Amino acid sequence: MATTADRIRQIIADNLDVGRDPDFDAKLVDSGVSSVDCIAFFKIVNDEFSLGLVAEECRQFETLNQLVQHIDQKAA
């Protein structure tokens, strides 16, 4: 079974043109991804993991690792 990080990595590969493996410790604002693409990414993550987050809540995640931790805590 794929880990949450693996699933996030695949969503990024399928939907964002970053040209590299994502750094899960880097700040999302430094990723070079446009704000429109970030919003689209969070919508996909919301659907994939049934999170129910609204756009404003997505700003609480500074890194992908913080997002992964949040998803894993919701699943526990």
From TrEMBL:
Carrier domain location: 6-71
InterPro entries listed in its UniProt record: ACP-like_sf, PP-bd_ACP
Pfam families per UniProt: PP-binding
Entry protein name: SupB
